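Dear Dr. V.,

Thank you for agreeing to look over these. As mentioned in my earlier message, I'm a first-year student in the group and I'm still getting used to reading structure tokens, so any feedback on how I've presented them would be very welcome. I ran two proteins. I've put each sequence directly above its structure. The first is here:
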Amino acid sequence: MDLPHTWFSTAAIGEDGALYVGSNTVNGSVGRLIAVDPGGTVRWMRQDLDEIISAPAIAPDGTIYVAGRNSLYAIDPQGEILWAYETGDDVFDYSSPAVASDGAIYVGGDDSRLYAINPDGSLRWTFRAGGHIQSSPSIGRDGTIYVGANDGELYAVGPDGTERWSVRVNCGGPWGCLPIQSSPSIGADGTIYIGAEGVVAVDPGGTIRWSYKLPRSGNVLSTPALGADGSVYVTSGRSIYALDAQGRLSWDFRTDGLIFGSPAIGVDGAIIAASFPNSSANSWEGTVHAIIETSSTNGGYAGAPWPTARGNRSNTGRAGG
């Protein structure tokens, strides 16, 4: 099925197998949310939204949350808009919403704020970071929200909107602090992993546990995928990398094209990523790579509260799966 201009938005999968993905027109003037049946036919399409670059999230009741440039939308499974939280400015960009266990929706803004929206569409609180937030928030078992910002800091924010800690994870190079566009993953023991100028592991108290600068790589934009054995998988440039739980390189696989998205772990343990021949938007015919590890078994995503970019295999972007 050809769904135009969906290249930035990761599809989320509903309980009935429907796919929900964001789209926009070439000039970005109109955003779309598209629902696709498991058989591949379009169930419905909303074409009256702001430009959508980020991925949708799905609440346990089936409500879909998606961020347009000016608004966060709540849309029911039939495609009807329940409410829209409007900022009045181009605030929401690449940050995708995340849904907490109590129904709160978190999303980052280009105004350097992390927004918490109630399930009825009212504002609960905002938290100001030191730079634009293009990273998508992740949620730990205790409700702590983790998000990166363009000041090179990783922030831990409590469910009440107060800062628990922040740590510089992307400020060690000759260019000063670089933006963080990677989103955090959270391991079974609470360790937070994020892409920076390499991969950084931070313990739940905010201390850097280890960092590893990837060969042939600059600023890492992808979100690490975590195996149950502690393995960490990340993509950058033209390569897929595997690190062990201590931050040592296990292997790397070089592709012929550029990799823009984050890696995934298949049900058989395969490491999956897509590469494209160049960065031109006019050439999006790519290659999907599936790598089977022969000397180790990563165990898939079992045991971690947020082991991948959108929290789980269905990419629902919500706490608790």
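The second protein is here, in the same arrangement:
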Amino acid sequence: MRNVPGLETIERDYAPKGVKFYYVYKSLAHPELNNYVAPFTLEERLMHVAEAKRVIGSRFTWLSDTMDNDFKHAFGNAPNSEIVFDPGGKVASRRGWSNPDALRTDLERLIGPVAKPTHVEDLDLPEVAPAETVAKGIVPRVEVGSRMRALRVEPDLEGSRVPFYVKLRAEADADLLESGTGTMYIGFHLDPLYKVHWNNDAKPLSFEIKAPQGVRVTPASVVGPDPEESADADPREFLLEVDAPEGSGPLDLSVRYFACDDALTFCVPVTQRYAIRLERDRDGGTVRRSTHSGTPK
């Protein structure tokens, strides 16, 4: 595994004799699961790794895929794959979905059985509750169809002097992807890595979209909700109508919000920009919108 290009080794503190186990962090299969959202930088992926180790209690070595998802693409794009390499670096077995019993059979075939197999109940894993945050359920979620698919979103990392405390997710319905005319979902999600919340005593989030010539976005300028509750952690979500000829360039989105940390040490105005490409992001995962409360997955 060490010879696979594009992987960053996070830690090596557990290597049973004869076998080395690795977790590989890839793009999130289900953003929003346990409240985690897709990271924008390799540093944020490594922060997710640290958080997963804290919550899971893992002693395995972790590897992180590149931001271009080279490992994911090279090994078939499966979200929960399992691969065994022999000492020469060749693939000895692989499956698209992890199967612990099949993996044990593989290892017994390759290196022989162990005298005392480890069972889940032997691990004594810690139970770590999700971090406390401010109130949720204040702002109603937007009803989104099941056929929405992630769009390619490119944050302007160089143009921002602070982290993307709030992260944009954009999705399109089948009509928009197939014909250029349809509905686009815009969601701004607080990133729990930064332990921030919405300060509803400040100006609410607002954004505007500048579209290329010939492209229509309605509405193109939006001011978000202004709840009576002084603080909350709900996403700010919107549905827009888009009419774009084939081959249209990206949408230029600019968002303004106040970033306020849960420890009440700062609350600052932030302006950040994105390019939204009207094409499917096949590394964007799918959102299970009925699940909102853990561990990146």
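From my reading of the second output: Confidence is low (pLDDT under 50) at residues 1-16, 291-297. Helices lie at 42-56, 70-74, 100-111, 174-179. Does that match how you would interpret it?

Kind regards,
E.
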